[in-house]
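Collaboration report, partner site 2.

Our partner group contributed sequences for two proteins of shared interest, and the home lab folded both. The records are reproduced in the order in which they were received, starting with the first partner submission.
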Amino acid sequence: MKIPLLDLKAQYSQIKDEIRQAVDEVLESQQFILGPRVSELESEIASYSRCKYALGVSSGTDALLLALMALGTGHGDIVITTPYTFFATAGCIARLGAKPVFADIDPATFNIDPRKLETLLEKMTSEELSRVRAVIPVHLFGQMADMQSIVPICRKYGLKIIEDAAQAIGSECPFGGGVKRAGSIGDIGCFSFFPSKNLGGIGDGGMVVTNDADLYEKMKILRVHGSSPKYYHRAVGGNFRLDEIQAAVLLVKLKYLDTWTEARQKNARIYDELLSGVVSEHFRTPAVLPGYRHIYNQYCIRTAKRDDLKVHLRENGVATEIYYPLPMHLQECFRYLGYKKGDFPEAEEAALTSLALPVYPEMGADGLEYTADLIRNFIMR
């Protein structure tokens, strides 16, 4: 049996006619930049994420960059985030001349550990604290970070929060006696519409969301080279616009997002059940915190035998992926930060032990059972 990590062709085959009609309508209109479909998608994503405002941008990376720029991040500033994430989180900080500073992760969720964040801030000098511009918690693999704990810490120190929700559109966590969606808690939330995301386009795309009118207006201007009105520049921005064709495709897909998420959640529950017999301190399935809505952009298991298991699955037709093999603090380009191996042991351990299994919505029960059987037999031998 051959099982890909993600089967976008299966998804496309179900909505092909709708996608082609949506794209053809854009082509007929010949309106490709910041047209009515971008505006409609912004309204829909704002509503879906339970935010007041949304802006379509060119990628998830540019969403982070725009958010940081809107907060005035620049040379000499410090931005705190996790060392266990996709490169864009730390890369955007560095691109603006600011310094990425890391706090280790919670081994159960892969997300930044609020206790480590608080300890880091407590140990900073007053001069260092004065340079901290923001904190970027990453909602990794589809489960939100512990925002109930993170927000009071950040507010105590007067810090802005950018939610990196690139992998977490529609995910939820308990907050303030209720439930909040990814992107709606911090000052700015950032989404990615990279094709492999739960809501993926046919190329790059992203979105920023906020409940702050001033930040919204600032990002709206920065998105188009800092111009308002056209050709009159209040600031140096960038070309961060979302294409009209991407918006048209995403509007079609958004209608199916919750159905696809439910299918991913169902597949995750099946994995949990099938693998329950081998769960131990040496083999773990994803932890879902009480009251959280995990959307399973990835279903990541953990085992010290990760590399051998990956080979075993590949030899038997099952594709997997390692997210991520090297934490940010050990990347060559961040050597100047002065971190060393051992500084963030939980992130380093996750990089050595985590493995993402296929969990896409169209994956059938036979594929799930086949994959789980291979894993059980490998772990128990």
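Second partner submission, folded after the first:
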Amino acid sequence: MSKAQETKTHIIVQAAALFNQQGYAGSSMSDLMRVTGLQKGGIYNHFRSKDELALDAFDFAATCVQQKFIGALQGKRHAIDRLLAILSVYEHMSDDPPVPGGCPILNTAVESDDTHPALRQRAQLAMDGWRGLIQRIVEKGILRGELRSTVNANDVATILIATIEGAVMLSKLYGDVSYLEQAVSYLKTYVQHQLATPV
């Protein structure tokens, strides 16, 4: 990796953590200079605008989340084990976040709702990827007879994601991880007892 590429990567990594903790709008150029250790010109030497940096930083953060899922799913073949592995990523989110500041998809979706259409679109694409992953696991599980034939893949994706993200929000709002722990515990029971084909 060239020196220029190393610097650009450093900026993206630091900006991803900053934006995920303070928000895009809440992060000033002086904040970016502080976390990167670079002057304004040094940052704009690699990015045409703060918007361009924000998109690259979000893509990096979303990739970090995706890598957590990939790692958790390794070696898991059964649909139930795969769904539980996804839940385990969030079970350990407070101890081992993919990016400081919590779930970047949730944070970006909330902040960019009406103010930053390009970031909102990136958050939607990341969410589409997460929903698609869960739906594929469920559909394959139904075909293999691992999950009940009456299960709806879209419903499962919605229930898992909405419950997890709501719990992440509550845990952040109250500074209490028990909300997330309770939600994950409930979802584990839901997956094991309401989705699994009865033995």
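Feedback sent to the partner group on the second submission included the following. The mean pLDDT is 92. Residues 3-195 form a domain with the Tetracycline Repressor; domain 2 fold (CATH 1.10.357.10).
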